[in-house]
Amino acid sequence: MPSFGAESISSSLSSKDIKIKIYRTIILPVVFYGCETWSLTLRKEHRLRAFENRVLRRIFGPKRDEVTWEWKKLPKEEINEMYSSTNIIRVIKSRRKRQAGHVARIEDWKGAYMFLVRKSEGKRPLGRLRCRWEDRIKINLLEVDGGMDWIDLAQDRDMWRAFVKAVIILRVQ
């Protein structure tokens, strides 16, 4: 029984197409599990991008320099050219927005909607305010379109789908 861990991705016995299929069908679903509820910080985004680059470097392997004939790891730009799929951060943001649209369309009396729109009680800890899940949605809405209320926008499914697609297209810093 073959294992589908790091050995199979870095093995020279498997083709790059097989390795990419393993990455897309086995590894990415594990990474994306529950991503709809995350509030991504810049540190978490950086770590996810580093993880994606590390796995893709293992898949595509090192590159031999044509002048010195030394093996070097592939730069991010070349990896992005070789791997034509969407950036991991963009996928997470689009999934989060899609889930937010589902929750916003739920009737007012449901628990998930009430939890989403209610204001927390008590004081926040000292220091910089923590960015909440709803705050990230508002930030993405400002990046894409502008000042419309996201809950009102989510009521129209076609408009919300266009917003989610625009989040995927956005250039992630």
Query: pLDDT below 50 for ≥5 consecutive residues: which ranges?
Result: none
State the secondary-structure class: mainly alpha
Note the overall shape: elongated
Helix content: 55-70%
| Strand order within the widest beta sheet | 1-2
Individual helix count: 9
String of helices and strands: HHHEEHHHHHH
Number of strands: 2
- Alpha-carbon Rg, integer: 20 Å
Overall description:
With 173 residues, the chain is an all-alpha fold. It folds into 2 domains: 6-85, no CATH class; 90-120 and 127-169, no CATH class. 60% of the residues lie in helices and 2% in strands. It contains 9 helices and 2 strands; from the N terminus they run H-H-H-E-E-H-H-H-H-H-H.
Task: Compile the SSE list and pairings.
Layout: H1 6-10, H2 16-32, H3 42-60, E1 63-64, E2 71-72, H4 76-82, H5 88-104, H6 111-117, H7 133-144, H8 150-155, H9 157-169
Antiparallel strand pairs: 1-2
Q: Outline of this structure?
A:
The protein has about 170 residues and is mainly α.
What distinguishing features does this structure have?
elongated; mainly alpha; two-stranded antiparallel ribbon; 2 domains; 173 residues
